[in-house]
Amino acid sequence: MKTKSVMIVGVGGQGSLLASKLLGRLLMDEGYDVKVSEVHGMSQRGGSVVTYVRYGDKVYSPIITEGEADIIISFEKLEAARYASYLKKDGKIVVNTQEIDPMPVIIGAAEYPTDVLSELTAKGLQVEGLDALTFAEQAGSSKAVNIVLMGRAAKYFDIPYDNWIKAIENTVAPKFVEMNKIAFNLGYNS
Amino acid sequence: MKKLMIGNQAVSAGLHDGGLGVVSSYPGTPSTEITEFLSKYDDIHSEWAPNEKVACEVAFGASLAGARSACAMKHVGLNVAADPLFTLSYTGVNGGMVICVADDPAMHSSQNEQDSRHYAIASKIPMLEPADSQEAYDFAKSAFELSEKFDTPVLLRMCTRIAHSQSVVETAAAEPAVLKDYVKNPQKYIMMPGNAIKRHPFVEERTNKLADFANDCIYNKAEMNSEEIGIITSGCSYQYVKEVLGDSVSVLKIGMPNPLPDKLIKEFASKVKKLYVIEELDPIIENHVKTLGIEVTGKEVFSILGEFSQKTIKDAFDLEKTESVSADSFIPARPPMMCAGCPHRGLFYVLSKNKITALGDIGCYTLGAVAPLTALDSTLCMGASISGLHGFNLARKEESEKKSVAVIGDSTFMHSGMTGLVNIAYNATNSTVIILDNSITGMTGHQQNPTTGYNIKGDPAAKVDLEALCKALGINRVKVVDPYDLKGTEKVIKEELSIAEPSVIISRRPCVLLKYVKHEKPLKVVSDKCKSCKRCMTLGCPAISMKDGKARIDATLCVGCGVCNQLCAFGAIE
Questions:
Q1: What tens digit of pLDDT does each residue of B72-120 get?
Q2: Which of A107, A111, A125, A141 to mutate to test the interface with B (most CBs of B within 10 A)?
Q3: B325 vs A87, A129, B331, CA distance in Å?
Q4: Architecture of the domain defined by B2-214
Q5: Given CB atoms, is A137 within the 8 Å cutoff of chain B?
């Protein structure tokens, strides 16, 4: 199988590391060769963060460059737009429509481009927006945005539903498993 | 068993399974997790040292005593440990010793882009460089044997993309940690001139032996395919080459960048028509190949700057471009910033408001440099705020003494701030040093340090009393402020700047991300009272924004620190 490329993007502190850990482990258990590239340190302090997940028969590069991603899972609207150029022509963006103002917007030096998703759609990209924050809060914690999004994106992976649930059980701290299962299902059935 | 591990975890597993007994390190991205993962093994002594020089010397001592030892640091940390490094090359080892060093091409979290392979060459110490997590495990594990066989410490070079990328690792059986005999051997371990002069020929001879070894070892391997194009590469660059060019070219993969395998390189070069070297950062392999009289293409095509990717290779070989679409709208940058409730914010606000010159240091608080606070004037290296301020004040005298400070974190002060402070007292400038004591090493992800009262395992440990320490170092005026109290902080800073005496101000409040820190109820803006003056916006707090002309506080981010509240002249924040 040709190597597939998944990007998980968002704002530092939104839980993208856990999502990539879950996905990476699941893909390995499914029998793929897997590489997951994380970013630590300074960029985590509320900055834009990007994690690359690549899987296939044999994966070489741990990173993804422009025009290569099969799927972008974005935890925030602006971040989806920032990395849209990484998407393949027939790739898909699954995006939480939540808006988190970056510092230039907060201090009034720039405007938040609110209509940017429709702009991307108009350009022919396949963009699926969902209000993952509301689903997460429904599940019991605003922190579960990451799992809601994984639930929504699950259909783009050739992995049985039960294995996703097993992966959640194996990755998430025991006391949060039930809440995260609800979050996953809300995304999955959305 | 197969496991997905980041490179740093694989290094730690390799070191453990190679029989490691003692590890001492100072945290630094992208090296930190090596030691964090090692701290989870109960059969290894692990510790955070105050700095990399101490860590390296601890590893030396443990090796001398007969244990297999290691230390880990980021590239600039090796500058700090360079003093023991160069002479360790002469003493060699008793128990095997591995020095892990992590480079940061593209500076994801660093102040420069130095290439630590220069250190291997300069100190004449062999260096290994894995290209994925499996190799990180294998190389780390085998490094002890290499170290003991050749009587040398071994450098293990990581870079961000290997250190922080997970890939599949199959671990092998762990070797038990063995404590070799310690036998006193002054000629080998006391590096005074009479002994060292006899060790230098040993070092040269060892390098020759290692160079022979390099031609036929597990670390370097030739993959012969095409006779047209041959590529010599190493580390993550190897992955990019394979990703794009696959088996269409021949590849000489270098896993041991020092010393380089001359015979292997010559053989490889003779079998291909066109030879490239593809390596990130400096042209180390390339220059070496050129000294062998071999024609090669390298840095004229593959940049000396930043990190590579598959795109680098595609562009160089003129291969199909991938198509992509991007938004036309302006996408504002999202730089990292201080968290909502960060105790550094109040302090930096006061400095910024009073237009105080602030020589900065390395840590989360380097973010005080960014808009809107723009409170810093310099950031050089660990500890340079304090020594730099002394120099600044020597040059500009009273004029700067009255309006300049150094700002340094608690961990950085322990690392290399103390010596600078002694210098201020001893060589007498009326300098004002602010220690930002947030009770943790923040930027690298919350490591304990000698001021926190806990060790690497989270167990209680001796706690440095910063006030007593500063006094003992010769500073008579030591004041403590709470950076959430803007007026109190401002008063003390003004006082200490005006007094013709060196002083230390400890700005003390634990990092807001620490689990034990209780958050207050989020504040909110009473819209009717908000006059849209935007004074609260000058704090650069991520929880505060302007919506429809009025300030608004994001309740999910606000921790109720109350700093903005103190700025509002209209009582609109409650």
A1: 999 999 999 999 999 999 999 999 999 999 999 999 999 999 999 999 9
A2: A107
A3: 8, 18, 14
A4: 3-Layer(aba) Sandwich (3.40)
A5: no
